[in-house]
Amino acid sequence: MLTLFHQPLCPLSRFVRLALGEYRLEARLIEERPWERRQEFLQINPAGSVPVLIDEGEPPICGAGVIAEYLHETRNGREPLYPADPGQRAEVRRLTSWFNDKFHAEVSGFLASERVFKRHMTREQGGGPPDTDAIRAARHNIRYHLAYIGWLVRTRDWLAGDELTYADLAAAAHVSAADYLGDVPWSEDEAAKAWYARVKSRPSFRPILAETVAGVPAADHYANLDF
Amino acid sequence: MLTLFHQPLCPLSRFVRLALGEYRLEARLIEERPWERRQEFLQINPAGSVPVLIDEGEPPICGAGVIAEYLHETRNGREPLYPADPGQRAEVRRLTSWFNDKFHAEVSGFLASERVFKRHMTREQGGGPPDTDAIRAARHNIRYHLAYIGWLVRTRDWLAGDELTYADLAAAAHVSAADYLGDVPWSEDEAAKAWYARVKSRPSFRPILAETVAGVPAADHYANLDF
């Protein structure tokens, strides 16, 4: 049995939930609030961050990228999320990191922290009113990422090539967190929107679309497959 | 023939150079100044960052972690830098990411940018006087990372277990960039110091120790194996 420590609007946690869904793996979900720095959790992951996957008898698998490699190595399904060629895999990893690292640092990390996580934090944990400059920067930055997604899928079926890969799951996970908050300017890029509609309609996406976060209502169109 | 776009005091570039050295691979080195956002380089890596490895006939391999996976998959030597067991590999990846992401964000990225890269940047590129608060924070943060290294190697031969792995190369790469600048408080942890002395004496480290950066002299003890 797998167990996943996650946080609902954390885009890195969403990425792992989508990967588990694509591999048709069930995992027990435990909602962790990393900002509380719970001692038992710090013993599992000294970095104190989510996601963390527990696979009994193994060391804790810490971090979105590390979990992706682990699932690929141990639970690779009939439709793998990496292509067979090492050069093509490098391209998938480049784009996965683009979203899990760069998009997270420039857009989705700010939005989730400032608009959601901070509400639950005490002042000592870093809580307080949202930093409107950070939110404004995130809403500015998302435009060029959306244009990049659109540019990629105008020449390819999926972000990294002919097949759905981890790159699509990473991009969609981060976009979905911003979309929950109504912060994706969909009218700016039709190709990006059409790509997201395709990913969003996969069965792996359903649990994420069905979930709402207490005190933070989802944008009206969030769960709508025809948005 | 391999080509590596790198920057001498960039710890992520150093990590890749150490990995190439351990695999006994020669690569042509091209010094890239990412802050200049050279058009030809942006076409190779749209993220604009180093390191980038070029392996003829393949897409560009962008980013330290992506390069590590690629070398493992295509150039795995007699002494691999990942263990054979997937759970143990996850532990190596956790620690590699600890240094390439966390240590970089809290220590070595600040030090390299504020103390070195900014000197070469115009005001438009983000240049200007060093941010002394950022440098002070990095010098504060390095203490707990050094303690973590020390804690790990008091119970294991190398950071992630019985063998040298990518985790040791990542940690040593980031520590070496800080050490060049004289910002490692070695007297604080004897075990961490003894571990670094072992990594530093490997042949893969020689080119990095021999290199100096124009205008930024290395700390006196930097290249000394008995520091």
Sequence-ordered SSE layout with sheet pairings:
The structure is a homodimer of 227-residue chains.
Chain A: E1 2-6, H1 11-22, E2 27-31, H2 39-44, E3 52-55, E4 61-62, H3 64-75, H4 86-120, H5 132-155, H6 166-180, H7 190-200, H8 206-210
Parallel strand pairs in A: 1-2
Antiparallel strand pairs in A: 1-3, 3-4
Descriptive account of the structure:
The structure is a homodimer of 227-residue chains. Chain A is of the alpha+beta class. Chain A contains 8 helices and 4 strands; from the N terminus they run βαβαββαααααα. Chain A folds into 2 domains: 2-75, Glutaredoxin, CATH 3.40.30; 86-205, Glutathione S-transferase Yfyf (Class Pi), Chain A, domain 2 (Up-down Bundle), CATH 1.20.1050. Chain A has helices at 11-22, 39-44, 64-75, 86-120, 132-155, 166-180, 190-200, 206-210, and strands at residues 2-6, 27-31, 52-55, 61-62. In chain A, strand 1 (2-6), helix 1 (11-22) and strand 2 (27-31) form a beta-alpha-beta unit. The longest helix of chain A is centred in the middle third of the chain and has 35 residues, at 86-120. Chain A is globular, with a radius of gyration of 17 Å. The first copy, chain A, starts with a strand and ends in a 17-residue tail after the last helix. At the A-B interface, strand 4, helix 3 and helix 4 of A face strand 4, helix 3 and helix 4 of B.
Oligomeric status of the shown chains? homodimer
What is the percentage of strand-forming residues of chain A? 5-15%
Query: What value does the average pLDDT of chain A take?
Result: 96
Q: For the largest interface in this structure, which chains are involved and how many residues does each contribute?
A: A-B, 31 and 30 residues
From the alpha carbons, calculate the radius of gyration of chain A and give it in angstroms: 17 Å
Tally the structural domains of chain A.
2
Low-confidence blocks of residues of chain A:
none
How helical, in percent, are the residues of chain A? 40-55%
Overall spatial form of chain A: globular
* CATH overall fold name of the largest domain in chain A: Glutathione S-transferase Yfyf (Class Pi), Chain A, domain 2
What's the order of the H and E elements of chain A? EHEHEEHHHHHH
- Give the N-terminus to C-terminus distance of chain A in angstroms: 36 Å
What's the total number of strands of chain A? Answer: 4
Which strand order do you get reading across the main beta sheet of chain A? Answer: 2-1-3-4
**The CATH C-level class name of the largest domain in chain A:** Mainly Alpha
Number of helices of chain A: 8
Backbone structural class of chain A: alpha+beta
